[in-house]
Design brief:
The chain has 528 residues and is of the alpha+beta class. It contains eleven helices and 16 strands.
């Protein structure tokens, strides 16, 4: 083969250059015996036919094959490159790649003959092609057989596919949990009881333009809050639901997102909308309820839980170094009752400025204006009961919330993050007001122990009222709660992750008279 190839170079440098381009035009990264599926994939991903050799960024006029490539482009139009505009002429090629390039050249010659432009093909070129065809007859037959099989398989898949526009994504969680310690407010230890529970989500994601997404997510779970045992919602898990929902299926998210121009991303939430699903929380290793922190508080700063359900969110320049995000979400948008609806009920309006000069550094500053009616928990099951209802259950309140979040990756394997929030809480019926603070810091060690595994630590203070108008102080709020969490995410493969961890809550309900509570969890997450 080597002798024959160099004879080809001497006789027809044009055809030789064609064959050297096979790896980019037909099979970009093929090994000795490439699968048909990969061959087809690389072919479709190619740069396509070029009209000038100058289109290749890595081909220079001083290269030894420049004239051959230039002649090939001008005479045959039989050259293609990689999607990034390179030719990679120095890369070695196998017999299969050589045969693939020869096949492409033969097809092009036949096309030229059929269109009566065969005068540009010399007898010497045809003789060389004939010799090459004979030499690589076995490889050519193999490639054609593979293509035929691939076409048949593709036709079968198209005939039986679920949808041309919709993808189904799923996630299932198995959780083994046990809490132990002293029940908050009761002064005695609660009975330890290990539970085994689950959560399942199926998400139908449809795209009609390639850049938009319509999401319909179904959710079912029997993981409930454990505050009935521990005496505090501070021990709530990040994937827990509410009581009374034993694996009942519901639509928990319905939204449509799309690009408005090149620098604006828009999301319309009809149900289940949250700020943390659209805006950056600067907590990439712990944000997800299925593969992030085990606790609700540890996923991100509770301030991102303001508002919810229905509304509009917009990100300006979302892929740039500086991004401005805004959003409005209402809890009772579907209700026509007085004091409810899109603008007259519970709502939250957000504005966030993000600065992300690189993948290793990001910081965000934000403001949220929110309103809650009677009896609502303003920090959404994080923080103490008193912080969630500082003026009791009968007063509607409004809030001005300010926050900052940061994430730094000094090395690819280390991620350090943190956040802090301040809430100015005002009663809508009296002159009462209160201040509340929350903060947290986290550390993630990626690829710890094995590739894909992550060791994580979270420490912080759940929302706490630090100042309140005279006469409304909580007599039990005489300390500060601290949340400590350690977890180890073990990725068994691309679909299964097991996460054991321990949550420790010091001074639950911000009361130093309460005993420490421990919550151990083993979460297994299946994704498909």
């Amino acid at each position: 083969m080597t002798k024959l190839f160099w004879n080809v170079v001497k006789v027809s440098p044009v055809i030789a250059a064609t064959l050297l381009s096979a790896n980019s035009a037909i099979a970009n990264e093929i090994k000795e015996v490439t699968s048909v599926a990969q061959l087809s994939q690389e072919t479709n991903a190619g740069m396509g036919q070029v009209t000038s050799v100058s289109q290749f960024s890595d081909v220079q006029p001083t290269d030894w094959a420049f004239q051959a490539l230039q002649s090939l482009v001008e005479r045959y139009g039989c050259i293609a490159g990689y999607p990034n505009g390179t030719y990679r002429g120095n890369r070695a090629l196998s017999r299969y790649e050589f045969a693939a390039g020869l096949n492409a050249c033969l097809d092009r010659v036949n096309e030229l003959i059929a269109t009566a432009t065969a005068d540009i093909i010399t007898n010497q070129d045809l003789a060389t092609l004939q010799r090459l065809q004979e030499e690589f007859s076995a490889e050519l037959a193999t490639l054609r057989g593979r293509v035929d099989a691939l076409e048949a398989r593709t036709a079968e898949l198209e005939a039986n596919q679920f949808s041309t526009t919709t993808k189904l994504k799923g996630e299932a969680i198995f959780a083994l949990t046990s809490a132990f310690g002293g029940a908050a407010g009761e002064g005695e230890d609660f009975i330890e009881n290990t539970t085994f529970s689950d959560r399942v989500r199926l998400s139908l994601e449809s795209s009609f333009t390639g850049s938009d997404k319509l999401q319909v997510r179904l959710n079912a779970r029997n993981i409930v809050q454990n505050n009935s045992v521990t005496g505090t919602r501070m021990t709530r898990l990040g994937f827990a639901g509410i009581s009374g929902s034993p694996n009942n299926v519901e639509i928990d998210q319905l939204n449509y997102s799309f690009n408005f121009g090149k620098a604006i991303r828009v999301k319309v939430d009809a149900a289940g909308g949250d700020f943390y699903d659209f805006h950056n929380t600067f907590n990439p290793d712990f944000k997800s309820s299925g593969s992030g922190a085990l606790s609700r508080f540890g996923r991100f700063n509770p301030i991102y839980r303001q508002g919810g359900q229905s509304g509009l969110q917009v990100a300006f320049n979302p892929k740039g170094a500086v991004t401005l995000g805004v959003g409005y979400l209402a809890d009772e948008a579907a209700s026509p009752n007085a004091g409810e609806g899109l603008f007259n009920g519970n709502y939250a309006a957000l504005a966030q400025l993000e600065f992300k000069p690189s993948k290793r550094f990001g910081i965000g500053l934000g403001y949220i204006r929110s309103y809650y009616g009677e009896g609502e928990r303003i920090f959404d099951s994080t923080g103490s009961d008193f912080a969630n209802r500082p003026f009791g259950t009968t007063e509607p309140i409004s809030m001005n919330n300010y926050y900052a979040a940061i994430n730094v990756r000094p090395t690819p394997g280390i991620s350090i993050g943190g956040s802090a929030s301040f809430s100015d809480i005002q009663s809508e019926t009296t002159a009462s007001d209160a201040d509340a603070w929350s903060w947290q810091a986290n550390l993630a060690l990626r690829d710890f122990g094995a590739e894909g595994n992550t060791l994580g630590f979270i420490f912080g203070q759940p929302p706490k009222v630090t100042d309140i108008s005279t006469g409304l102080a909580n007599p039990d709020d005489n300390g500060t709660s601290y949340h400590l969490e350690g977890l180890y995410k073990m990725r068994l493969n691309s679909n299964i992750m097991v996460t054991p961890g321990l949550m420790v809550l010091f001074n639950p309900e911000h009361n130093d008279g309460n005993d420490t509570i421990y919550v151990g969890t083993i979460r297994t997450t299946f994704k498909f």
